[in-house]
Design brief:
The chain is of the alpha/beta class. The protein has 2 domains: about 70 residues, no CATH class; about 250 residues, P-loop containing nucleotide triphosphate hydrolases (Rossmann fold, 3-Layer(aba) Sandwich). It contains 14 helices and 12 strands. Strand 11, helix 11 and strand 12 form a beta-alpha-beta unit. The longest helix has 16 residues. The protein is globular. Bound molecules: adenosine-5'-triphosphate and magnesium ion.
């Protein structure tokens, strides 16, 4: 566990303990979906103003909670304004899972929005009070780039964790722009890992083993961004997580290859990770102008039912621009349609909680 992470946890514990909840518990209470709802000091405490309070960094780096007026009108402009406030100062705290949720974001089809989803869901969750780690398992290192975490060849990375047994804690870096968000970066070295892992003992379980040795109780979510293949790296991610999130791009070939992915998930489930389940599907790059996008979305909902998030991510230029500025769209343009949609998707995920049986 990095010092930073420990400090963030201590800060939050101090904050939680200092705020008596209505139930009498110190700052948190169980909710229907089994998650922990953290009490909002702005709602009940004698704060300086009405409405929820939002987290910002104080001079000494500590988390402080100034009052923020809340936008209540449910219009696109109000939602955009609210999203902009959240990106600047952090938002009301969403329910945090009782135990760390580890989610693999996988789809062997390239360019469907895996990385964009990992980065923006992670940013949204962190902006709402969850401690989130993004594990970049793709040699392209796109998630590390988008989070502006150094990942040039030779720096300690996921490669060293998988191949050299280096502890995860030694490679995790904080994301400067967003408190509570952390990244385990990928370097180009990882491109060789698919081959280098082959002769190693328990080659499919290297990431799982590394996470097992790491104190995940300091985190609420670990999101693993996979490469576009079903090779050993993706298999490692599937062995390490109980939950799979599949982003599906709303276009003609979207469902092609999905069967193969689900077959791989079932194989891993029956041989290596009995707890594995596809818990979440997110429709990405939806273009409302085309009938095809609607047809694909309908088909996915018909086939997968309740695990498909209601929120759909639209095609948005701002989403695609953000990584080149080393940012998530949540901070790059929080009022854009893409940012608002990712915020809604993350909120839905947080409120749904982990599937039963975990
Ligand atoms: N909602 C969106 N609107 C517009 N562009 C998007 C959106 N989501 C993703 N993109 C862009 O589409 C491209 C592919 O997205 P992304 O890198 O997230 O996909 P991926 O599945 O991780 O790709 P890979 O398989 O190569 O890892 C990127 O250029 C990204 O900026
Ligand atoms: Mg990617």
């Amino acid at each position: 566990m990095t010092e930073d992470l420990v400090q963030a946890r201590a800060e939050r514990e101090v904050h939680d303990a200092g705020v008596p909840a209505a139930s009498g518990a110190a700052g948190s209470a169980a909710t229907e979906d089994g998650s922990r709802a953290v009490s909002d000091p702005g709602a009940s405490g004698p704060g300086p103003g009405p409405g929820p309070k939002h987290r910002v960094r104080g001079d000494n780096g500590a988390v402080v909670l100034p009052a923020q007026p809340e936008t209540t009108a449910d219009t696109p402009i109000a939602r955009a304004a609210q999203a902009a406030l959240v990106a600047r100062a952090g938002g009301p705290v969403w329910p945090r899972p009782r135990a760390c949720r580890i989610m693999t974001i996988a789809n062997q089809k390239g360019g469907v929005g895996k990385t964009t989803t990992a980065v923006n869901l992670a940013a949204s969750l962190a902006l709402h009070g969850s401690r989130v780690l993004v594990v970049d398992l793709d040699p392209q290192g796109n998630a590390s780039t988008a989070l502006d975490v150094d990942h040039h060849a030779g720096i300690p990375s996921v490669y060293n964790v998988l191949v050299d047994d280096r502890p995860l804690a030694a490679i995790i870096r904080p994301v400067e722009a967003i408190p509570l968000l952390y990244c385990a970066p990928a370097t180009i070295d990882l491109a060789g890992a698919e081959i280098e892992l082959v002769p190693l003992v328990a080659r499919e379980s290297r990431l799982s083993r590394a996470l097992g040795r790491y104190d995940v109780s300091d985190l609420d979510y670990i999101l693993i961004d996979c490469p576009p293949s079903l090779g050993l790296l993706t298999v490692n991610a599937l062995v390490a997580a109980p939950e799979v999130l599949i982003p599906i791009q709303c276009e003609y070939y979207a469902l092609e290859g999905l069967e193969q992915l689900l077959r791989t998930v079932n194989l891993v489930k029956s041989h290596l990770n009995p707890a594995l389940a596809v818990s979440t599907i997110l429709l990405t790059m939806f273009d409302a102008r085309t009938r095809l996008a609607t047809q694909v979305a309908d088909e996915v909902r018909e086939h997968f039912g309740g695990i498909v998030l209601h929120s759909v991510i639209p095609r948005s230029v701002r989403v695609s621009e953000a990584p080149s500025y080393g940012q998530s769209v949540m901070t790059y343009d929080p009022g854009s349609s893409g940012a608002v949609a990712y915020l809604e998707a993350a909120k839905e995920m947080a409120h749904r909680g982990a599937p039963a049986g975990r």
